[in-house]
Amino acid sequence: MFEVIVLFLGVSLLFYCLFAGADFGAGILEGFSSRKFREKGQKLTYDAIGPVWEANHIWLILVVVILFMGFPKVYTTISVALHIPITAMLIGIVLRGCFFTFRHYDPIKGRSQRYYTGVFVFSSIATSLFLGIIAGAVTLGRINLETTNFIQGFISPWFNLFSFAVGIFACCIFTFLAAVYLIGEAREEDIRRIFLDQAIKSNVVTVIAGGFVFIAAQMDGLDLIELLWSHPLSAACLVLATLSLPVLWFTLIKRNVIVPRLLAGFQVSMILVAWLWMQYPVVINLTHGEDLTLHNTSAPDATLQMLGWALIVGSMLILPALFYLLKSFKWNQEQVH
């Protein structure tokens, strides 16, 4: 049952990045769009993510539940050592959802719309940034469970160049996902062309940001290149993601709609799998003592058995309903158009 739980944990992380990450990216895209295009873009964004954006957080909830029940020491360590970026990320999620809703349902379309949009864009950037910072912090290895110093215990683990580089990379890759996904949602050719251009530009920026992650890792004393290439599967995933770039650019230039979506999802999946496999079975790298792994922090077998069966039965009930939700709203939008 241990393997089943780990599989659910990995898949939940992947789906959260692919779906919720694209939602965050849609907010970031608005901030970098021209004022002329922004109004049409806002309507398209709402049509694309409005009905189901809350459902995407089911994957984050699954991650939290699995860590809380199956790997309690990991949950405790992350919650305490990284409580500042976690709190900032959660505030961003709440603000983003509130102002996204206020902007759409406020009957007075006046100056308040600017504030709604401003907070929505800012919180989308902040949420993506701090999500990446958390990932960088558990990888870098500056979490110290033995210190009583506030700075070393609660600031140094995440307030560093590498963690912020990963956060910037997360912002870029989510923006890229959003641009590619929204290409297929656009019905007007001029809007579709804008999203195609944004997808190409954001992909180039993502590649540059990815390179900066490796540079920041070296500067902070983490040999990320060596770590990735020492794991054949991680190296293979990065090679595949890199080799798919020319194909992606070709399909974008050719104004394709479906293939870029598949390739974008493939690239993000390969990057995430490379990182997860590089870390496995370690979840948190520590400054002192034994790193926290999935093995040395797991709950008793009885708890894992109950959690595993709960995930299996729950997925059989929830996933078909989630698919039906997505299908229903998508069908309704197609009927409207």
Automatic annotation (TrEMBL):
The Gene Ontology terms for molecular function here are: electron transfer activity; oxidoreductase activity, acting on diphenols and related substances as donors, oxygen as acceptor
Q: Name one Pfam family in it.
A: Cyt_bd_oxida_II
Family to which the UniProt record says this protein belongs:
Belongs to the cytochrome ubiquinol oxidase subunit 2 family.
Which Gene Ontology cellular component terms are annotated?
Answer: cytochrome complex; plasma membrane
- Recorded source organism is Rhodocytophaga rosea
For this protein, the parts annotated as crossing the membrane are: 6-32, 44-68, 74-95, 115-138, 158-183, 195-217, 229-250, 262-286, 306-326
* Protein name per UniProt: Cytochrome d ubiquinol oxidase subunit II
Q: Which UniProt keywords apply?
A: Cell membrane, Membrane, Transmembrane, Transmembrane helix
Where's it found, cell-wise?
Cell membrane
**GO biological process per UniProt:** aerobic electron transport chain
Membrane-related topology note: Multi-pass membrane protein
The highest taxon in the source lineage is Bacteria
